[in-house]
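Support case: user asked for a sample of complex input and structure output to validate their parser. Sending the pair below.
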Amino acid sequence: MKKSSAHPFFDHLNQFVTISEKEFEIIRSYFETQNQKKKQLLMKANSPCDQIYFVLKGCVHMYFLTEKGTERTVQFALENWWITDFLAFQKQTNTHFFIQAIENTVVLSVRYGEYERLLHDFPQLERYFRIIFQIAYGSSIMKMKYLFDFSKEEIYFHFTEHFPEFAQRVPQYLIASFLGLTPEYVSEIRAKKRS
Amino acid sequence: MKKSSAHPFFDHLNQFVTISEKEFEIIRSYFETQNQKKKQLLMKANSPCDQIYFVLKGCVHMYFLTEKGTERTVQFALENWWITDFLAFQKQTNTHFFIQAIENTVVLSVRYGEYERLLHDFPQLERYFRIIFQIAYGSSIMKMKYLFDFSKEEIYFHFTEHFPEFAQRVPQYLIASFLGLTPEYVSEIRAKKRS
């Protein structure tokens, strides 16, 4: 068995707070490991949102279906990032979103009751999640600025330049969806740039 | 002097965590009270973002200037809500945003170093801010869904129906800006609805 210090979640937590190996062994026990094949769903719309997910390996996206039945991506998560419908999770209600694996993916998941118990038992994780959500909220305000300020072409190239890992790993039609663009438009501006 | 239990910030904190009156007296000392006249700026673009603000009374908005010089609102804060450029605050960098009072406003403000010291001294506030940011982040994902899913008309009426206090207190052109609409468009659909 691997030493816990080699666990990516252990290393990740210790970038923000101090967790000993012994504490980590207990923290780890609050989580389940889920292996998801590419295209599999971790969460479905119109069902209770009772879990949050931490990506250990792979990539997922969260999307909803528009009235016309089109998938619209609102969030991605690569390694070391959290994803769920945090509002439905907080309120313990049904979600409007789906979460789907874009690659074969391994996530840690924790249910609401366990999450609350974990935070109670390890108050340093209140600090960890406070920092994570502070950054996530700040980033979402910045995304709003880009959506309002940039032309569609600028939005696309800004995103792919600032997040090259996404541009390499995530299919173009999902990046287009996340940025509020059509796949045809993205093909067009990419072709224009190449020529 | 009023008893601290009558302080709206005390009542607000105790909706999420348990703070005694004695603790509150100390917590209160980390903050400054700022009185802002309508239209006054609390934060300016291209300057360090070193403070977060809690609205005690009144209303503010955070906006940026587009390349064409138009103000675009990305966030509002009424009573009992926090506002700043959280990403610049976290990274301690310059901000791209302005924060301006929409009415005569009273805010509590805390600087970065004091905020960190406060969280260190009162770990229950890590929990408080974790919950606040979890809700704020979850709400921002939901806003993204509305922007992508709804027609412009639906966005406007959804917002004014769900947040009637904003619709009453905030000028229409700022609500339009926040929702990515033009003031002319909002006038048009409001007139259409009345007729």
